[in-house]
Amino acid sequence: MGFKILRKEQLASNIHFIEVDAPRIAKAAKPGQFVVLRINENGERIPLTIADKNIKNGTIEIIFQEAGASTTILSKLKAGDSILNILGPLGEPSHIENIGSVVVIGGGVGIAEIFPAIKEYKAKGNKVTAIIGARNKQLLLTEEKIKNMADELLIATDDGSYGRKGFVTDILKEMIEDKKEINLVYAVGPVPMMEAVSNVTKAAKIKTMVSLNTLMLDATGMCGVCRITVGGQIKFACVDGPEFDAHLVDFKELKTRLSTYRDKEKEAIDHICSLDKIKE
Ligand code: NAD
């Protein structure tokens, strides 16, 4: 029953990789899309980006951070265990065409989500520069894979332990100052990063797309939990997105909505950890 986990790896202290048997999703999934999974009967619905897929093997890959109660429970599953439901692929696929020179930016866990877009931008004949950034070297996920696919890979770490010291935006600013040709920027990562990227490219008038990680519940456009404002209009990230024109996104509202249940989430994680302690 359910969707079997075929491979599981811990990539960093609280970041995990799973490869799951899901042939129909693997066949249909396009870059930019996500799945919603429910671990068990009592599980909440968690939206997670499809990090890669293998149509031949009928598998999808997911890389996730232990962020709340459900991802903490998911992190405890092993290869051979099953996830009760996986719904997908969901969301609008990325609109990828030949536009010239594209800069694809991944920050933190967002790095793990940019590979399908890089692959497709390359397939459409674009020159792709990838910029990835994380707090330190250990958190630079899927570096080799990105290096092998992109034309150029530029790296920043906050602590300077690898690549240049600083943020992904420092590298982007330099590229713009050096008058490098950039026709499009595509960014995935924490909201402050996507907002910072947007501010840089807005000033330089470079079209920029971001993948928004809003809260989500049903992920079919009915519940409204993922509501955001884009260009003054109400949108739902699950069905209208998750990708939007960064220069039109109301980031202030997004940040406020993302923090709504932070206290409840902390309570839920503390509860799970206390149950683990009882078992020990
Ligand atoms: P983090 O805070 O460690 O930041 C990662 C990198 O992003 C930094 O090293 C830096 O290069 C850049 N960055 C961060 N803040 C910046 C700023 N203010 N200005 C310029 N650059 C900045 O990231 P993390 O802890 O790995 O991120 C986790 C967050 O990413 C979670 O909130 C998660 O929900 C989100 N996430 C988003 C997506 C998505 O689809 N957008 C996907 C996966 C994870």
TrEMBL record:
Coiled coil: none annotated. SUPFAM superfamilies: Ferredoxin reductase-like, C-terminal NADP-linked domain, Riboflavin synthase domain-like. Gene3D superfamilies: Nucleotide-binding domain of ferredoxin-NADP reductase (FNR) module (3.40.50.80), Translation factors (2.40.30.10). Keywords: 2Fe-2S, FAD, Flavoprotein, Iron, Iron-sulfur, Metal-binding. It holds the Pfam family NAD_binding_1. InterPro entries: Cyt_c3_hydrogenase_gsu, Dihydroorotate_DH_Fe-S-bd, FAD-bd_FR_type, FNR_nucleotide-bd, OxRdtase_FAD/NAD-bd, PyrK_electron_transfer, Riboflavin_synthase-like_b-brl. GO terms for biological process: pyrimidine nucleotide biosynthetic process. GO terms for molecular function: 2 iron, 2 sulfur cluster binding; flavin adenine dinucleotide binding; metal ion binding; oxidoreductase activity. It comes from the Bacteria. [2Fe-2S] cluster binds at C223, C226, C238. Residues 1-96 form the FAD-binding FR-type domain. Transmembrane segments: none annotated. FAD binds at I63, F64, Q65. Its cofactor is [2Fe-2S] cluster; FAD. Signal peptide: none annotated. Binds 1 [2Fe-2S] cluster per subunit. NCBIfam families: PRK06222.1 (NF004862). This is Ferredoxin--NADP+ reductase. It comes from Candidatus Saganbacteria bacterium. The lineage of its organism: Bacteria, Bacillati, Saganbacteria.
